[in-house]
Amino acid sequence: MKKLAILFLIAFVQFACGQNTATTITPENFKKEIEDSTVVVLDVRTPVEYSEGHIANSVNIDYNADDFASRLDGLDKNKKYEVYCRSGKRSAAASKLMEEKGFKNVHDLQGGILKWESMGYPTVK
């Protein structure tokens, strides 16, 4: 009976918390991925954060903006997206939403731009 209760609890927690199927990748792998010119680099921070420094060739769509979800609808769901924010929370949520909307290939930068910069990778203003 105790094993059954534990299994039920595990199943409940997984269901209640949801599963983010977007792949979180390390800054090293993110850097390799964005070398491909067909990849869309998506920065989901605010415009102010973006102006303070961002990954080259990234597109800024503010996750906190009222029109975020509708702006995603205007993107090609078959392209490959590399998504980042400041620390990884907004990009994880954005990546999950993108997959729910039918995007086929989404990666989330582990640790966000803070981790990216701590690794010595460049940003532009």
Radius of gyration: 16 Å
What is the string of SSEs from the N terminus onward? HEHEHEHEHEH
- What percentage of amino acids are in beta strands? 15-25%
Class in CATH?
A: Alpha Beta
Tags for this model:
16% strand, Oxidized Rhodanese, domain 1, five-stranded parallel beta sheet, 125 residues, globular, alpha/beta
What do you see in this structure?
This protein is of the alpha/beta class. The radius of gyration is 16 Å and the shape is globular. The longest helix is centred in the first third of the chain and has 16 residues, at about 1-15. The protein has a single domain, classed as Oxidized Rhodanese, domain 1. It is about 45% helix and about 15% strand. It is built from six helices and five strands, in the order αβαβαβαβαβα.
Give a brief outline of the structure.
The chain is α/β, with parallel strands linked by helices and 125 residues long. It contains 6 helices and 5 strands; from the N terminus they run αβαβαβαβαβα.
